[in-house]
Amino acid sequence: RKFRNIPPGPPPLPIIGNLNILERPLHRFLQRMSKKHGNIFSLWFGSRLAIVVSSPSAYQECFTKNDIVLANRPRSLSGKHIFYNYTTVGSCSYGDHWRNLRRVTSLDVLSTQRVHSFWEIRRDETTRMIRDLSRGALGEFARVEMSSVFHDMTYNNMVRMIAGKRYYGDESGIKDVEEAKEFRETVAELLKLAGVSNKADYLPFLRWFDFQNLETKLKGINHRFDTFLNNLMQEQRSKKQRENTMIHHLINLQESQPQYYTDQIIKGLALAMLFAGTDSSAVTMEWSLSNLLNHPEALKKARDEIDTHVGQDRLLSESDLPKLPYLRKIILETLRLYPPAPMSIPHVASDDLTIGEFNVPRGTMVLINVWAMQRDPQVWPEPTSFKPERFDEDGLDKKLAAFGMGRRACPGEGMAMLSVGLTLGLLIQCFDWKRVSEEEIDMNEQNWFTLSKLVPLEGMCKARPIVNKLNLK
Ligand code: HEM
């Protein structure tokens, strides 16, 4: 097709388009490109046109007046083989199936009431975390590596919520060590393969060769994970006593409305929760604590707030979070500077549309550079400084794009803010924190699927009196 008045961009080569110039991390590369070509610019991934949006006004336009037209997702090999042939909530395009999935997600999985019903799990996992951390940290500072602590805790939270299982962390807390090991290995492999940037998605002729052997690997890992999920579902079905797990609730609903709650939908939802809801929350905890170690004045302010409103006689709980606005501002400022999905999830235009002064043809992939927008000096003065106080301004949090906007915005925002707030709040309440040396925490990122720290966070923590008082050691 001949395209008129599409956004400007670098000249493409025949067949490969601009694939040869892409650099990692993609969000930084695309920010540099937007300085050269404008806040709405074009790139060619093979023969697929992609538009990169880095301006808040164009972003608004995308997800208000163009929201439905942009509610489709691109097709990819991982979507086909890992996400059940594009039928999971994050991977499928707009339509009746997606609407049903979003309804199930908001009502039966992530509603306020359902998330609240899993509070015991979050309390148990965070208490275990504090107990483990305090072991070497009674009376003196101990050096701790927090990246794996956050990872294991978030995964345990999620898998317990989905299926009632604990698969991560110290073996003493795991019932079936072999099963847990298999799950961990399968999930790690799954995440790795789903994040692989696959040239065959844009250069279809490469699929004939499958030179990275990717398609075969994707099929293999899908089979392993699917078998695992089938077994988990079987186990839940055979349990006489009903448990409070996501799979159990959905199996119950399947009995009365089998057309809406098929096995594939239930497995797809479990996969979507694992994919979208674990690493994103874990890295937010890690970036937040890293920011606090580099900004002791913010850490002190958060601690004073917690000491005033919760004190040292009982552990902070989720119902305290509304009384802790400064803690919330720390998390918002962290999400601004280090959005876990720096390029969000790609959208695809189902029809011709306009964005700003440009035409965007049907089939175009639309990428949002959340990372660049949240560092735009026009909207965020001193954009690279960590300043939680900036959110004193009413309504500024609405300008964040970290959770997306419109129909396909993140349905897990409430749960994420709860679990990050609870974990960070408890770490501040229960421990004194400092850096391992005078040197600032390295804040460089690597971008695989989520924006994670290049150097995993290490810090020094010392238990505060509450840990002794509540006998958490
Ligand atoms: C700090 C944590 C999180 C961040 C920053 C985040 C961010 C995002 C973003 C940017 C999107 C894409 C929005 C778009 O397409 O425009 C998304 C989608 C999604 N998120 Fe989250 N998320 C987080 C946590 C969670 C949690 C805890 C869950 C579930 C337990 C979750 C479930 C989902 C799902 C299912 C989608 C796909 C929605 C759809 O395509 O219709 N997320 N998230």
TrEMBL record:
Gene3D superfamilies: Cytochrome P450 (1.10.630.10). One of its GO terms (cellular component) is membrane. Pfam families: p450. The keyword Heme applies. Heme binds at residue 410. Its cofactor is heme. Belongs to the cytochrome P450 family. This is Cytochrome P450. It comes from Clitoria ternatea.
